[in-house]
Design a protein that fits this description.
heterodimer; A: about 60% helix; globular; B: about 100 residues; mainly alpha; about 80% helix
Amino acid sequence: MREGLRTSWIAARRAALLGLLWFALVGPDAEALLPGLLAVGAATWLSLRLLPPISALRAWRILVMLPPFLWRSIVGGVDVARRAFHPRLPLKPGWVEAPSHLGGGGRAVLGGGFSLMPGTLVAGTRRGHLLVHCLDTSQPVLRAVADDEAALTRAIPPAEAPPR
Amino acid sequence: MMAADILTGVLVLLGVAGFFAGSVGLLRFPDTHSRLHALTKADNLGLGLIAFGLAFQAEGVADILKLALIWGLAILAAGTAAQLVARSALEERAPAEEDAP
């Protein structure tokens, strides 16, 4: 019974998020209410089919990660832009292997985040290590990956670590 | 001229500068992976700044959400695509490249 309760809770949260999405796309329009409800219902059903509700993502933990991500993006972006315009092109490109214990989905999020962050790019994993390409290998990339992995682990409870 | 218009102008110009830096990096950086860096970062920062700047011209919450959605979907796609391209570029060159892990 508890299982069913959790499933409905996750379904309700997804429906609320998709409802917000509909509102963002259509705006406050009374005539759009009926098609909106139908679309949100269908999208929720589809999302439950595609990503089974195993355990609830702690969404606020993801939101907490957003400001540091944006800040590092700006700092890193200025740094990479400076290197791109510098006449001597001061780069020290190379690979760093960062250990990662996250499951497939969490690892994809971690890799995506670091691929978006200026200065690092992730090329998949090898033997449980994230392959990170760095524009400057003297930057403290290993620590940044470990920090974000820890934050992501708190956001995605272990039970949700998707099966390989 | 309102303060919002000035903010929009400054942020959009900064965003354009981000895209410009990304394009310069794409042309100047030495190898495939370094060049890939330049592409995704322009999406993240450049588009982010432009969307943020335009948010000051929005007429309602729905418009701001729409701009955030555009940025969110674009970086979702960019982050995923960058990983896939980086991986396939690595696999293609791995036998010839000694310093690759």
